[in-house]
Amino acid sequence: MDIATIIGFLIAVAGIVFAMYHGTEGEFGVFYSTEGFVLVMGGAIGLGIMSMPWHAAKGIPSYIKKCIFHKDVHPQHLIEQIVQFAEVARRDGVLALENAVKTTDDPFMKKGLQLAIDGADPAVIAQVMDIELSSIEERHHHGRKMFELMGKYGPALGLTATLIGQVCMFRNMAAPSHGSEGKSEGDNQAASIAKALQVALLGTLYGT
Question: I need a labelling partner for 18 at 20 to 30 A (CA). Which of 7, 69, 133, 135 fits?
């Protein structure tokens, strides 16, 4: 993961946590709603999977792993490495690149070197590598699209949570309250309305 991504993420989270902490004097529990979380997150994941082919949707864990642990390689480093391989092949022959295949960590580079060692025609190597590159781009596209779809559906599901919470709130306002030990009917009704309103607001928060 790029260092700028980590820094930006931490700054954004710090700003949100700061507002939550000072707004509630440290009572973070008020920002949790099981109903709102399940509705928004479950709905976003479900709609994202529904909008994509299954072979792409089932790769979500690998997309997340790739996003977090991916190490970006500077183009200059790759160019220098390719030049070194070319010098070795020109000086010692293509078969001398077998050691390079064992030491390189880049699967794309390793595949190209192996084709060269096997004596494949340069035009065939170029064609195979173009196909491989297109396949990599397609996988990255599916991984990116999954999170874009979740971000797209999230606010809509937050609005859905708001509407569900409001329906529950109006139902509790209209329904007669039953008193319990130590509580009046008005207290019970107010608590029910507050809980429904909490689901509505927290669902909207999760959606955004």
Answer: 69
Reading the block at residue 8, the tokens are 């930006």
Q: What is the 3-state secondary structure (H, E, C) of 136-201?
A: HHHHHHHHHHHHHHHHHHHHHHHHHHHHHHHHHHHHHHHCCCCCECCECHHHHHHHHHHHHHHHHH
Which pLDDT tens digit goes with each residue over 3-23?
788 899 899 999 999 999 988
- Judged by DSSP in three states, 74 sits in coil
Angle at which helices 122-174 and 107-117 pack, to 10 degrees? 160
> Other CB atoms closer than 10 Å to residue 73's CB: what's the count?
12
Q: Residue 193 corresponds to which amino acid?
A: I
CA nearest to 166, candidates 207, 195, 208: 195
Q: Is the pTM of this model over 0.70?
A: no
* pLDDT tens track for 89-135: 888 888 888 887 777 777 888 888 888 888 888 899 899 999 998 98
Q: What gap in Å lies between CA 60 and CA 126, rounded to an integer?
A: 30
